[in-house]
Design brief:
Length: 302
């Protein structure tokens, strides 16, 4: 029979090794080259940040992981020490100590200090995410069963609905991803303060784009807002993150971040217009360069 002490020692050793391994993975993730494809199999880290908000979230997450791992290792080591040093075999006469002022002060003060160390950056992050800077572009997002509708109120009557692309219609040559690509991606400009006004037409949905650091509920009859400022061009994906019915898993979000010139061209191509103060005259495209292919929204769906 394996003794209780032996089992406890093995469990403690396993927990300690696992904690060290998690710290190692976190360090690798923090220093790995960013992957903006956002499609990873068996991911163990957060998606590469595309906005300042997500960069702060990632930094806070990594800091917490180090703190929590240190706590786990310390508590595990303390438990092992107590089991070995103060078991019945080593102490046939139990100790009658009832208190220790120094220890009681330490186990009160140290946790308070740790919580303060965590609280200060967490409150800074919360205020940073909640500040909603002056918008340079406003997009109204409406969750439906089971797709997303988008409107550009600052750019004329531009509105469309984005639905996931079925497997049989996927075009791998265009880099379309199963259950993530949509027939009408949302197009936004880089380095622009974007405010998303989010609501729903039927049940509660959730507009979530991990690379942007956005996750906000879409509630019928209510307008919630979130902001983002993408500092990288590329295609980023999200999904509805609130169970909303049988088609919940078929509500992807695809956002294409393009240059401001390309965004202005896309707006004009959809029959809209740029605000006078923000109008951008597109630069001439060199003949040797291939034109950037931007998505054409499907405005026939309701």
């Amino acid at each position: 029979m394996i003794s209780t002490l032996t089992v406890s020692l093995r469990i403690g050793f396993f927990v300690s090794c696992l904690s060290v391994f998690l710290v190692f993975l976190s360090a690798c993730a923090a220093h790995a080259a960013p992957d903006f494809s956002q499609i990873l199999e068996w991911p163990y880290k957060l998606q590469a940040a595309a906005t300042p908000a997500m960069e702060h979230i990632t930094e806070f997450h990594n800091m917490l992981l180090y703190i929590i791992t240190g706590i786990v290792i310390f508590v595990t080591a303390l438990l092992l020490f107590v089991m070995v040093r103060f078991n019945a075999k080593a102490n046939p006469t139990p100790s009658t100590t009832t208190h220790n002022v120094l220890l009681e002060v330490l186990w009160t003060v140290v946790p308070v200090v740790i919580l303060i160390v965590i609280a200060v950056p967490s409150f800074k992050l919360l205020f940073f995410e909640a500040r909603n800077p002056a918008p340079e572009l406003t997009i109204k997002v409406t969750g439906n069963q089971w797709n997303w509708s988008y409107e550009y109120p600052d750019n004329g009557e531009i509105s469309f609905t984005a639905t996931y692309i079925k497997d049989k219609d996927l075009d791998q040559a265009k880099g379309q991803k199963r259950l993530l690509s949509t027939d009408s991606p949302l197009v936004v400009p880089v380095d622009t303060n974007i405010v998303f006004e989010v609501t729903a037409s039927d049940v509660i949905h959730s507009f979530a784009v991990p690379a942007f650091g956005i996750k906000i509920d879409a509630v019928p009859g209510r307008l919630n807002s979130a902001w983002a400022r993408a500092d990288k061009t590329g295609t980023f994906f999200g999904q509805c993150s609130e169970i909303c019915g049988v088609g919940h898993g078929l509500m992807p979000i695809e956002i294409k971040v393009v240059t401001k010139d390309e965004f202005a061209e896309w707006i004009v191509a959809q029959g809209g217009s740029m605000p006078a103060a923000d109008a951008v005259v597109p630069e001439a495209t060199p003949v040797a360069e291939a034109p950037v292919e931007l998505p054409v929204p499907n405005t026939d769906k309701k």
